[in-house]
Each structure stands twice: as C-alpha cells, then as structure tokens.
C-alpha cells in the first residue's frame, strides 16, 4: 500500500536542511577566501585547509546518508561519497615534506579533485532521483558545479602551490556562494512542503 501525504511524516531533519546547507556554504566561502588571500602559501598550509574542507564535507554527507529522507540509492551514494571524502581528508592532512613541492602539489590536487567529483556525482544523482527533495534544482546545480570543479582540478597542469591555491580558492568561493543562495531556496521549499503536509493531515472540523 502506497503511503498517502497525510500518513507520510515530515522528515525530522528536513526543517534543518537549509541551515546545514547555509553553514556549509559559509564555511566553504570563508575557506575559499582564506586560500586566495593567505600570505606565504605552503604545501603544509594548503594541505591543512583543504583537508579541513574534505573532512567537513565527508562528515556532512555521511550524516545526511543516515538521516535525510531520500531514496536508498541516494543514501548509498551519499555514504560512499562521504566516506571517500574522509579518506581523502586523511591523505590531504599528510605532510608531504619528504618529496619535492611539485609532487606534493600534484598529489594534493588529485585528492581535492576526486573529492569534488565524488561530491558532485552523489549530490546530482541523489537530487535527480528524489523529485520531492526541497531545492532540488539548486542541489543538481551544486552537484554539477562540484563535478566540473573536480574535472578541472584533475585536468589542469597545477605545477605550483600558488596556481593550486588560486584554482581551488576560486572554485570554493563559487560553490560557497551557490550553497548560500540554494540554502534560502531550500528553506522556502521546505516551509511550503511542511505547510502542505500539515494542512492535509489536519482533521477537518465538523460544522
């Protein structure tokens, strides 16, 4: 028997989805700005900043994989993407001082690029397969942007830490601003959905 709107509860995390998206956007934007303006860029500093980004992203995706009201396939994708981001964060945190800077930058670019791609694929596919997801269009847009960022990261000749910082910093700013904008769209959609379900489930008063 298919659940009716009246019998389908509003997911407990749904009202907070826009808040987490807003916080993620703000953190991503701040990180992007820090990467762009940080004086005396070094591989170690970049590894720490990018590792923090991958770590936060991984935790966020794993948490939503278990708590967000999405399809089973979407949960699996988010979990895999989140787990991969956590592993990539560990790799980014490693100190590459034993090798030359070019090799260190190359490896760091790979970890970040793969992280972008995993997040982009998981976000896009999850949104496509869940028509009821609030702010679905924005989630698809964010996924495509992350996927594009990852492809550029893996395909660009990033030989120095300065070039790496500029490329990643610009993309973090773009993704951060997009997340901030989408959070308000998600907030509006979530509020509309909650009100609709509340009206449907409210028993009609007898005259």
Overall description:
The protein has one domain. Helix 4 (101-128) runs antiparallel to helix 5. By secondary structure, the protein is mainly α. It starts with 13 loop residues before the first helix and ends in a 6-residue tail after the last helix. It has helices at residues 14-37, 43-67, 72-93, 101-128, 136-155, 161-201. The protein is elongated.
Outline the fold blueprint.
Layout: H1 14-37, H2 43-67, H3 72-93, H4 101-128, H5 136-155, H6 161-201
Helix pairs in contact: 1-2, 1-6, 2-3, 2-4, 3-4, 4-5, 5-6
Key attributes of the depicted protein:
mainly alpha, 6 helices, 77% helix, elongated
State the shape. Answer: elongated
User: What integer is the average pLDDT?
Assistant: 75
Helix content: over 70%
Unreliably modeled segments: 1-11
| Number of discrete domains | 1
Secondary-structure element order, N to C: HHHHHH
- Structural class, by secondary structure, is mainly alpha
How far apart the termini lie comes to 32 Å
Please state the CA-atom Rg, rounded to the nearest Å: 19 Å
Largest sheet: none
Number of helices: 6
Quick structural gist:
The protein is an all-alpha fold and 207 residues long. It is built from six helices and no strands.
